Amino acid sequence: MFTIGKLASLTSVSNDTLRYYEQEGLVKPAGKSPAGYRLYDKDSAHRIHFIKHAQNCGFTLAEIRELLVLRGRDKACCGDVRTRAIEKKLQIEHKIRAMKAMSKALDQLIAECANETQPVKECTIIAALERATVSMPVH
Amino acid sequence: MKVEIFYTPGCSECVAAHAKLRTVAQDAVQNVEWRELNVLEEIDHAVELGVITLPSIVIDGDVVFTSMPTARQLREALIKRSKERV
Fold first, then answer.
1. pTM
2. Do B65 and B74 meet the contact criterion of CB atoms below 8 Å apart?
3. Distance from CA of A91 to the nearest CA of B (A)
4. What is the dihedral of CA B76, A91, A89, A99, to 10 degrees?
5. CA gap B81, A35 in Å, rounded
6. Residue A138 has pLDDT above 60, yes or no
7. Domain locations along chain A
8. I want to staple B46 with a disulfide (CB 3.0 to 4.6 A). Which of B5, B32, B51, B68 is the partner?
9. What is the 3-state secondary structure (H, E, C) of chain B?
């Protein structure tokens, strides 16, 4: 059994983060020491690693909570998890597309502002951002 | 009218529902172009249309259902859109 500090060092997560995970129902102590300190077992460490890996794949804590529920549910199958992974990939692809559109919009603004020595009042980027309708390429 | 169903391969719930929904769609409106799309093979198309949950049904380019509809829900949606087009 580990104290919160030991679990934090084993998983490279701060004590505050572990407390937050506990508040969010993602981990719970396996017991308490005679002095009343929370104690965690190896499963808690596995769950923390699971959470960190899932976060790296783009899952939010709410989604990770669902994955952890599926992980522990006898009737769940891999297809349930796979669908969530595919949906997450779709969300990420949407974000990539939106960010590429933002990047193109910035390219346009940067190209329009070729004269770096102009006073800021005449800056075409500032002017374009002040206009209500900045053209945003879709693709 | 173009109806596209995006599904996850291996989703038994989807496979069972497709045939029934296809019949419902073809009975509800004329000239239905029915497509069943494995999202993993059509990911760019899915993203372009705004599909983010599975299964999803897209009618004439609009995401109309983000979960499997009942036969009645699909019929009503198709008839409504068909009337709007006239």
1. 0.78
2. yes
3. 6
4. 140
5. 67
6. no
7. 4-61, 80-130
8. B51
9. CEEEEEECCCCHHHHHHHHHHHHHHHHHCCCCEEEEEECCCCHHHHHHHCCCCCCEEEECCEEEECCCCCHHHHHHHHHHHHHHHC
pLDDT confidence tier of residue A135, bands split at 50, 70 and 90? low
Q: For B69-79, how does the pLDDT look when each residue is reduced to its tens digit (9 = 90+)?
A: 999 999 999 99
- Hey, what are A59's tokens? 């899952």
Contacts of A79 in chain B (CB under 8 A): 8, 10-11
Q: Which residues of B touch A (CB under 8 A)?
A: 8, 10-11, 39-40, 43-44, 46-47, 50-54
- Fold topology of B2-81: Glutaredoxin (3.40.30)
Size of interface A-B (CB pairs under 8 A): 32
**Domain topology for A4-61:** Multidrug-efflux Transporter Regulator; Chain: A; Domain 2 (1.10.1660)
The values of phi and psi at residue B20, to 5°, are -65, -45
Q: Is A139 helix (H, G, I), strand (E, B) or coil?
A: coil
- Contact between A90 and B8 using a beta-carbon 8 Å cutoff: no
Please, which residues have CB within 8 angstroms of residue A55's CB and are 6 or more apart in sequence? A61, A64
